[in-house]
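Input sequence (162 aa), recorded before submission:
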Amino acid sequence: MKRIILFRTLVTIVVSIGFIFVISGCTKKPAETATVEETTVSQKKQVTTVTKEQPVEKQKPVTAEPSAQEEKAPVLQFHVVKKGECLWWIAEYEDIYNDPFMWPLIYNANKDKITNPNLIYPGQKFSIPRIGYTMGEIEQSRKSAGAPRPYTPPEGTLIPIQ
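Predicted structure, token format:
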């Protein structure tokens, strides 16, 4: 009888811990896109040319086409933590690193603001390091985060190299 009570107690504890983990906020959520202050304008500008030979009434406006290659949105230099985020998710955003295993880079750059990498709070503003790393340091960071071998970043990752 004591074994059954002990077993039920153990199952209750395990289920409770799992439930707490699920509602604590570090479960997979879709990435939110961050807003960037800079925007590109793709409007046609009208330019009127004036020459001495033609009267002003017969002039036609000439439109200047924008360049065919629009500028990409710049990568973010900082990130303000939103409710429910963790360093893993922040590193996974496409405009941050596009690789969740690079979260130690954010942690190491913001150690003055983060005492425990598992505890970050909404409203904290973290700088996102973009330069000053060698490929060896990036591979070591990915290894410490639990990335599978080889520790090189996958294709599409925004790599912060000198």
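Checked by second reader. Residues 79 and 126 are 5 Å apart (CA to CA).
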